[in-house]
Structure prediction request, 75 residues.
Amino acid sequence: MEISEIEIKELINGFPECPVEKLVKGIKDYDGSDEDLEELYSLLKWIENHEGELAKLRRMIEKKIIDYRFKDVKV
Prediction:
């Protein structure tokens, strides 16, 4: 199963700068400071603004998984 970078770029505006990895790291490193809080809210806002694109990416990956798992099934 392969998901190309082109497919992702077509769905997610700003890829590969999307901040999901940064969000996960930020949550782990959160120390309660105002700066950390502002950065986390900024990342959450990015996710909110791209929920539709991320949902399309999820559905595309799910379809590829299903296609991959059943590619050898004979009808």
